[in-house]
Amino acid sequence: MRLTVEIWRQAGPEAPGAFEAHQIDGVDPHLSVLELLDALNEQLIDSGHEPFAFESDCREGICGACGVTVDGDVHGPEDNVPSCHQRLVHYADGSTVRIEPMRSAAFPVLRDLIVDRGGLDDVIRAGGHVAVDAGTAPDADAIPIPTLTAEESLDFAACIGCGACVAACPNGAAHLFAGAKLTHLAMLPIPSQERTRRARAMVTELEDLFGPCSLYGECERACPAGIPLTAIAAVNHERFLAGIRRQL
C-alpha cells in the first residue's frame, strides 16, 4: 500500500522544528512503525537526502528506547504496545501517518524524533537501586520470599523506562514510573532495608523534574509493560511512611 508519512524534523534542541511529508510505496501492512521509518530513511539516503534520527535497540519491546508519538498517540494506536511492535494494519491504502517525538516539557527534543529522557535516569540515580552491602552470595533459599510476593514484585519491575507515561500524562507526571520502582524494591527483603531513604530521595527528584499527578489514568493505557495505576498510589504511600519514620 501507499502511505504519506509526516515526520517531525528538528536539527537540535534550540532549532525550530516542522513536519516533513514523504510518500512511501509498496508498504507491507505488517511492518512496524520503526520498520516504516527504516524504509523511509533508505529512500532518503538513496536520493541523497538526510535521514531522520530516531532511537531503537532491541525491537523486542523490552529496552524502552524506541518511543515516538503516532497520530497523537504515544507509541501508536494500540494500547500497551511499544512503538517497535505497533503495526501498520490500522491504516488503509492512501492514509497519512504523522510521527513525532514524545511531547513533554520534561523531554526536550534533541534531534528529530529523539528526546532527552535523562530525567528518568535522575530519578533512578536518586534511589532506584540497591546499595546494601549483602556480602558474599547467599544460598538461594537463605531468605525466603513468598511466591506471590516475588511475582508481584517482578510485575512492577517489568517497567522498561520508555517514558510513555510521562508523554501521555497531561501534566507530564512520572508517578507510574517512580511508583513501579518504589513498589518493586519495597517488596523484597534486602532492597527494603533502604526503603525510607529511597522514598525520600526518589520522590524529591520526581517532584523537582516532573509534573504533579492528577489521576487522569492516561499513563496506564500507554504503558507497554502494563504497569497498573496502583503504582501511582505507591508514591504517596512510600512518602507517607518515610515521613512517619522521620518523626520516630
UniProtKB/TrEMBL annotation:
Give GO terms for biological process: aerobic respiration; respiratory electron transport chain
Q: Which family does it belong to?
A: Belongs to the succinate dehydrogenase/fumarate reductase iron-sulfur protein family.
Instruction: List required co-factors.
Output: [2Fe-2S] cluster; [3Fe-4S] cluster
Superkingdom field: Bacteria
PANTHER family, from UniProt? SUCCINATE DEHYDROGENASE (PTHR11921:SF41), SUCCINATE DEHYDROGENASE IRON-SULFUR PROTEIN (PTHR11921)
- Could you tell me which residue ranges the 4Fe-4S ferredoxin-type domain spans? 150-179
In its UniProt entry, what is this protein called? Succinate dehydrogenase
UniProt KW keywords: Iron, Iron-sulfur, Metal-binding
Start and end residues of each 2Fe-2S ferredoxin-type domain? 1-103
Which Pfam family name is an example for this entry? Answer: Fer2_3
What's a single GO MF annotation on this record?
Answer: electron transfer activity
Q: Which organism is it from?
A: Tessaracoccus flavescens
**Entries under InterPro entries matching the protein:** 2Fe-2S_ferredoxin-like_sf (IPR036010), 2Fe-2S_ferredoxin-type (IPR001041), 2Fe2S_fd_BS (IPR006058), 4Fe4S_Fe-S-bd (IPR017896), 4Fe4S_Fe_S_CS (IPR017900), Beta-grasp_dom_sf (IPR012675), Helical_ferredxn (IPR009051), SDH/FRD_Iron-Sulfur (IPR050573)
